[in-house]
Write a structure and sequence with these properties.
By secondary structure, this protein is an alpha/beta fold. Helices cover 21% and strands 17% of the residues. The strands form seven sheets. The protein has an eight-stranded mixed beta sheet. The relative contact order is 0.18. The model is unreliable at 1-75 (pLDDT under 50).
């Protein structure tokens, strides 16, 4: 059962008021990569380096955050809570399409989404706001899909078979993620309670092609530094958007293509602007990492194998088109899990080799192994505000595990799972060793409450094929994990992504919170707050946030802010894009009630 909160509803979140002014937090020093040597840029230098992007106020951080190469040893006590607020969140406003369906639609600032109180698992009691005590407050990023749009392993030519094969907005994934980092840095705390934010957790598919360059961009965005979303020959774009092929939006060509016929604009200079160097301030909060299938599997679905993916990814040939009708049958087999090792994919590339085009080879496009993925997180250059490794440790490397537990606060344990099956296919599962570890961790935890994070949702954990690294070991599906979490009185929420859709589902004893991606419309992240209400109940507040980019763009601003706005608008208009990904009102901004145990 759910209802929309309002000022007359005793169980709703009351109208926010403006908190007292506070001094701006200290800006940390950034380590920016230069072409010849390292360069340290302080707060003043950062503002100049960002240019039109600007430097909005940052979320409160410790007074002296070390440079990226240092490690955090401890965190000081957080500042006093602020009053609840709405500005900068979808409670206040949402980028909203103008006009009816049909044709290319523009975005403008529209009304926000109200908070919905959900009592599926417990009844809300009046007066809980006055008794409320905040136990945890965090931000979830999911499915950033940072894309090297010139990568030879990409299968854009399957666009006619699946809209996810190529999106018109993909070249702007990095600048769009930078705007999301800036949004979180500008938040004044947790919206529902005003408490300081504890951390940011990514829930996988941080990268798109399992490529080293994409991983480097992700770590640079999150922890701070120089990011150049370009590969191959610098300044010479060699992706599908400079080919003249009708299948793809050709922004720099006046000639009509399939997307321009739908109203997509002619934008000379777009590709040069999309691959321009950027500087990220990095998050002002500690951040933790969870892996997804696109982070570990070439194409997001093929098992790391005998080197074929490395050869194609770093090579000089790229397939960009197929004969009409060739791709649909192939993609159906991929969807059905009939090509986990990429055998059919390699056969397709071999058969279509005469249609490939020559591109500049680049070793930075090489696939990343799970070991390399963890080692990159442990690189001191990417420590940023911490923690060192962002959840991963040297022990993780030694034991070859990509799951871990960590304290979110005195009363709350965080658990990050690895649901990717290295045997291949884009759906997930847990290996038996990890499943038993999760069972033990929940049973022995010192904290009374736990929040569980993963990439896959419970409904998309149906891939139980053997993991080559653990032959003979069974894998557990989403139903088994759901049952385990329901048995534990500690578990309050399972927070995930993968589906690219906002959905909040009650299960016995806990809530499953799935959040939309940041590559498809509507491009959102989510703030999650946990409170003890002093009346036998707990509340989980969920608040969606958009990036800091303006809702509207006039299509003339090709600077970072204008491109981030365009990223959102192109995603809205992408042919074949699903219009239901924002979810229902009860899947967006909510207060989710739970009983205490």
């Amino acid at each position: 059962m759910s209802r929309t909160g309002s000022s007359s509803d005793p169980h709703s979140t009351p109208a926010p008021h403006t908190p007292a002014p506070r001094s701006a937090p200290a800006r940390r020093t950034l380590l920016l990569a230069a072409s010849a040597a390292g360069l340290t840029v302080g707060a003043a230098g950062l503002s100049g380096a960002l240019g039109a992007w600007g430097s909005p106020p940052r979320t409160p951080v410790p007074a002296a955050v070390p440079a990226p190469a240092a490690r955090l040893s401890s965190r000081p006590a957080p500042p006093a809570p602020l009053a609840p607020y709405t500005e900068g969140t979808t409670l206040a406003s949402v980028a909203t399409p103008r006009g009816g369906p049909g044709g290319y639609r523009r975005l403008a600032e529209g009304p926000g989404w109200e908070r919905v109180v959900r009592e599926d698992l417990a009844t809300a009691h009046a007066g809980r706001r006055e008794r409320r005590r905040t136990l945890a407050a965090l931000v979830q990023f999911t499915d950033l899909h940072l894309v090297d749009v010139q990568h030879p392993l990409r299968y854009e030519y399957l666009r006619a078979a699946t809209a996810s094969a190529w999106r018109p907005q993909e070249a702007l994934s990095v600048v769009g993620a930078l705007a999301l980092v800036e949004r979180v840095n500008a938040l004044r705390g947790a919206p529902a309670t005003g408490a300081p934010l504890d951390l940011v957790m990514t829930t996988g598919d941080n990268t798109d092609n399992n490529a080293a360059c994409e991983l480097d961009w992700f770590l640079g965005l999150m922890s701070g530094g120089a990011v150049t979303p370009d590969t191959g020959l610098r300044g010479h774009f060699e992706g599908v958007q400079s080919t003249g092929l009708d299948l793809y939006w050709q922004p720099g060509a006046r000639a009509a293509d399939s997307d321009k016929r739908l109203g997509f604009p002619y934008l000379p200079g777009y590709l040069a602007a999309a691959t321009r160097p950027l500087h990220s301030p990095g998050l002002g909060l500690p951040w933790y990492s969870t892996v997804g299938n696109h982070d570990f599997l070439p194409g997001g679905c093929w098992a790391p194998g005998d080197g074929w993916a490395h050869e194609i990814a770093t090579g000089d040939r790229k397939l960009m088109s197929l004969p009409a009708g060739t791709g649909a049958g192939f993609w159906r087999k991929v969807i059905d899990g009939q090509d986990p090792k990429g055998d059919l994919f390699r056969t397709l590339l071999h058969e279509q080799r005469r249609r490939t085009r020559r591109v500049t080879p680049d070793p930075r496009r090489a696939p990343v192994t799970p070991e390399q993925y963890l080692r990159a997180h442990l690189d001191p250059r990417h420590t940023g505000p911490g923690p060192h490794g962002h959840g991963y440790t040297e022990n993780s490397l030694d034991r070859r595990i990509r799951y871990y537990a960590f304290p979110i606060g005195d009363d709350v344990l965080g658990i990050s799972l690895d649901t990717t099956d290295l045997g291949g296919h884009y759906e997930g599962s847990l290996d038996e060793t990890q499943f038993r570890w999760l069972e033990r961790t929940l049973a022995r935890a010192e904290q009374p409450y736990a929040l569980v994070f993963s990439h896959h949702t419970s409904a998309t954990m149906r891939n139980t094929r053997p993991d080559p690294s653990r032959p003979g070991e069974r894998r557990r599906d989403g139903a088994a994990v759901r049952a385990l979490l329901s048995r534990s009185p500690r578990v309050l929420a399972w927070i995930n992504g993968h589906s690219h859709k906002n959905a909040i589902t009650p299960h016995p004893g806990f809530w499953e919170i799935s959040t939309a991606s940041h590559i498809d419309h509507p491009q959102l992240a989510r703030v999650v707050e946990l409170t003890a209400n002093g009346d036998g109940t707990l509340s989980l507040f969920t608040t969606l946030v958009e990036s800091s980019a303006p809702a509207a763009t006039d299509l003339t601003d090709l600077g970072p802010r204008g491109l981030a706005s365009l990223y959102r608008e192109l995603a809205l208009n992408a042919p074949g894009a699903r219009t239901t990904l924002a979810g229902r009102p009860c899947d967006r901004n909510t207060e989710l009630l739970l009983p205490t145990h």
